[in-house]
Amino acid sequence: MDLRIFKDKQEVAEQFSAYFVEQTKGKEAFHVALSGGSTPKIVFDVLAEKFAGQVDWSKVHFYWGDERCVPPTDDESNYKMTVEHLFSKIEVPQENINRILGEKDPNPEAMRYANLLEIDLDRVEEVPQFDLVILGMGDDGHTASIFPHEIELWDSEDHCVVATHPESGQKRVSLNGKVINTSKEVAFLVTGASKAEKVEAVIEKTEGFEQYPASLVQPTSGNLVWFLDEEAASKLNQNPS
Ligand code: 6PG
């Protein structure tokens, strides 16, 4: 397992940005699924402000691992967050941005987005293959929008599924486990002390780890990288610090 532990959120953002630049190098087309929530904000800020000149954005095609079923103008929107912290600061062709239409009816939208992935991306045994899927993890061990109370959605045959946030009841559209694990590379971006318990459970497979969807992230390629800050890694036995 490729565990990369850095001092703080700023250093994680810089190291992840350098990694992202490396990943895009020499690619004629690079298809990436972004994570949402709050952790990516500082990463996108640093990527845009310090590394933008090192990426040919005309070759990078953006998708999302999940989206909240809200309009793109809503503060809960992962698309809105990404516009504010990344797209508004870089020269990326609009046609390279493939957002999940959070304002639409979730079920037909999940089917539409799955169809888009099946057309746009190469496929491995009929499963769309990203070059990189970026994932976060919730304090409850969820990833993308696959939550512990709906962990069976991970094995859904539908490449995009409709999920429900356990507390708010908010609907989400999310990639399924097959699409995530078919990606050439998967990178977790996880920071903050509130994640430490689940990071330990998922990485060190402590008791009950199977109930956390993040533990099901095992890309067939074997290419899984964890970007952690020391707070998130604080309970790991293998944490050098
Ligand atoms: C989302 C995400 C979700 C996120 C985790 C962590 O839309 O919420 O994609 O999987 O990565 O909830 O969220 P934070 O980064 O806000 O802790």
Largest sheet: 6 strands, parallel
Low-confidence stretches: none
Order of the strands making up the biggest sheet? 1-11-10-7-2-3
Number of helices: 6
Could you please say which CATH topology applies here? Rossmann fold
* Average pLDDT number: 97
Structural class: alpha/beta
Order of helices and strands: EHEHEEHHEEEEEHEHE
Shape: globular
What integer value in Å does the Rg equal? 17 Å
User: Span between N and C termini?
Assistant: 18 Å
What is the tally of beta strands? 11
Q: Helix coverage percent of residues?
A: 25-40%
Protein model, in words:
Pathway: Carbohydrate degradation; pentose phosphate pathway; D-ribulose 5-phosphate from D-glucose 6-phosphate (oxidative stage): step 2/3. GO terms for molecular function: 6-phosphogluconolactonase activity. InterPro entries: 6-phosphogluconolactonase_DevB (IPR005900), 6PGL (IPR039104), Glc/Gal-6P_isomerase (IPR006148), NagB/RpiA_transferase-like (IPR037171). This protein is of the alpha/beta class and 241 residues long. 27% of the residues lie in helices and 20% in strands. The chain has one domain: Rossmann fold. The chain has six helices and eleven strands. Strands 1-11-10-7-2-3 form a six-stranded parallel sheet, with helices on one face. It has a three-stranded antiparallel sheet with strand order 4-9-8. A hairpin with a 6-residue loop joins strand 8 and strand 9. Helix 1 packs across helix 2 (40-50). The protein is globular and about 45 Å long. The model has no long low-confidence stretch (mean pLDDT 97). The chain binds 6-phosphogluconic acid. Residues 35-39, 65-66, 68, 78, 136-138, 143-145 line the site of 6-phosphogluconic acid (6PG).
